[in-house]
User: Fold Caspase recruitment domain-containing protein 19 from Poecile atricapillus.
Amino acid sequence: QSYCQRLQHDMHFLTSTSRLNEQVVDKIVLQLNRVYPQILTNEEAEKFRNPKASLQTRLSDLLKHLQKKGDRHCQEFYRALQINAEQLFNDLPSRKILKTPDPTEIDTDKEQYMLNDRGPVFFLACFSVAAGLALFWYCCNSETQVIGRARRILGFSPIIIGRHARNICMLYLEDMSRN
Assistant:
């Protein structure tokens, strides 16, 4: 959608009562006049800031004027609206249409969250269990003669695994060495 079409779509929402107050409209007009002087001339800015006319009339005239000027002018209005009234900008009907996802499209952020929802502690716990089982299987294999090395490794195990687990492993290794 072009910005002019979006502005046409949002016009009723913006001009309805109490959406924009006078201060915000004045800030938008001043920004379009001062920061982007090619958007509104001084005379046009004075016309749209005239306190004698009602706010709805001035805002409606401003939006129609910008639509006549072209897409770039409407885009600058949206930029000024975002800067001066971000909450209102996010609530615009045209923004909600743009934010509505395609039901056939895969949301990669959501998919990434679903794959990683358990966090790093869960990963470390699983990795520790797998490493412990691998070490246990390696040490208990009857073909290997590394029980002495395994004792040395398990001697430092309070750093790696808990004392209770270390004691169980040491008892098992002693029992295996007797057989």
Summary: Residues 80 and 164 are 66 Å apart (CA to CA). The mean pLDDT is 77.
